[in-house]
Amino acid sequence: MPALKKQRIDLRLTDDDKRLIEEAAAMSNQTITQFMVASASERAAQVIEQHRRLVLNEESWDLVMEALSNPPAPNARLKSAAKRLQNME
């Protein structure tokens, strides 16, 4: 038994957009709701993935690796921040 749908999103569409979506849903043999949910979910997953992944060119990658391998000595501001964090715990 499929899960009950409990959430609703209302959209305002132009007539052209509505016709386009209806046609695409029909061609996909889906209801408009199925088509809209599948399309929006797919796009949402793409956007989330793009924001979760950091792609670096070779030069940037080398700089990150260098910083991780040879971190700079902590400056006064970093030491102060670390001390404040310890005091909060």
Automatic annotation (TrEMBL):
Transmembrane segments: none annotated. The keyword Iron-sulfur does not apply. The keyword Mitochondrion does not apply. InterPro entries: Ribbon_hlx_hlx, TacA_1-like. The lineage of its organism: Bacteria, Pseudomonadati, Pseudomonadota, Gammaproteobacteria, Enterobacterales. One of its GO terms (biological process) is regulation of DNA-templated transcription. It comes from Buttiauxella agrestis. This is Uncharacterized protein conserved in bacteria. It comes from the Bacteria. Keywords: Toxin-antitoxin system. Belongs to the TacA antitoxin family.
